[in-house]
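In response to reviewer comment 3 from the previous cycle, which asked for concrete evidence that the modeling workflow produces usable outputs, we include below a single protein chain processed end to end. The sequence was submitted unchanged, and the resulting structure tokens are shown without manual editing.
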Amino acid sequence: MQIINGAGAWTRPIAGGANDWVEQLKVPDLSVGTYCIPAGGVDTQSPHTEDEIYVVTAGRARITTPGGDEEVGPGAVIFVPAGEEHRFTDITEDLALLVVFGPAYGSRGAAGEGDHVRDA
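The workflow returned the following structure tokens.
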């Protein structure tokens, strides 16, 4: 057993950073992390090579996929299959997301593919 302290908690991105991604646990079959985007921020992620579950722990936004847009807020659980284009938009309150990847983040692709945050 392992307790993952701080997973899903809002953290302001470091100075000069647009968003904040921290991976808190990684084992071969899954990984867990926290993704934070400030209100008014822009989500610049690209599709991932792993299946993904988001749990909204704080904030409000829309998630946009080829299948449509949905408003999300605290308690929303979102499944995004590997390879699906997706992005959080219209972020009206600081957004904190607990993120679970299966298998572990980055394990199916070459380094740099499916980056959660791309620096400008």
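The mean pLDDT is 89. We consider this sufficient to address the reviewer's concern, and the full set will be provided in the supplementary archive.
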